[in-house]
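Quick one: co-fold with 9YT.
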Amino acid sequence: MIVRTLKEAENSDRRVVTKTWESTRMLLKEDNMGFSFHITTIYANTETHIWYQNHLESVYCMSGNGEIETLKDGKIYPIEAGTLYILDKHDEHLLRGGSEDMKMACVFNPPLNGKEVHDENGVYPL
Ligand code: 9YT
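Sure, here it is.
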């Protein structure tokens, strides 16, 4: 069994910080679970272009507020505590932080290696 705390993970190289979000990767490919698990903060009043062409992701909002816009059809979905969105079609999207930081629990399949940040197209490599 593996047991980790967010506190210890945040104080290690599991924490990745960018301009619009930060993410603590609590469970990674090296753990051989077939998925990775992250606690991510989307900073308030930001916009991030994301297109996970190589990954499926589910994102559960624990606190804060924001919205997601799917670029294929221009639909906008509000996000608040209790909202789960599921990128089951590798949906290209804009993720916007609202008036408060959003705390999210994220699951990736296939799992991330650990250090990924988005490239200029909002993609993580495999
Ligand atoms: C919700 C989302 O996709 N945020 C971007 C960061 C990502 N969740 C990650 O790398 O943990």
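If it helps, The mean pLDDT is 94.
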